[in-house]
Write a structure and sequence with these properties.
The protein has about 180 residues and is of the alpha+beta class. Helix content is about 35%, strand content about 20%. The chain is built from 6 helices and 8 strands. It catalyses: L-methionyl-[protein] + [thioredoxin]-disulfide + H2O = L-methionyl-(S)-S-oxide-[protein] + [thioredoxin]-dithiol; [thioredoxin]-disulfide + L-methionine + H2O = L-methionine (S)-S-oxide + [thioredoxin]-dithiol.
Length: about 180
Amino acid sequence: MSDTPEATSRTVVLAAGCFWCLDSLARRLQGVETVRSVYTGGTAETANYSAVCTGMTSHAEAVEITYDPAQLPTEVLLEVFFSSHDPTSLNRQGHDVGPQYRSAMFCASEEEKAEFQEAITRFQEHYDRPIVTTLEPLGTVYEAEPEHQDFHARRPEVGYCQFIIDPKVATLRRHWGRWMRPIG
């Protein structure tokens, strides 16, 4: 789906390590309509946290983001995506290690694949090492368990939220504050 005036919303599926981080950031952006933490890349039988954590399911912890491109340009969303994790780190983000934590963009069409490839090329200039973000066909997405949805807002006292997600939110506020939802 393109960012044309006829399009009122668009859905993308992105993986940037643990889904709690990108989930929290996306929910703060203006124009975002829905955010779901999901598993994608594997089968229905293995689309659960216990199985995915083994790293043997082919799933990625991902986030499905539906947004209005008239309010949040796709380019800005992709800037937030690339800046919120290390896209040069293969199958890991910090202490989260395994293919389920890979950096990936799930493509719903050839047009979207080309758009995502162009974004990777554009953002490569910001990194000393090659971006290893994969472009994968979008298959079925499986909603993650309820406890993973909007985790940061529901469990801000958890160490992972305080030490990993809170600094990412502060960076979002500093660099993309004009794209954040109004407070209050």
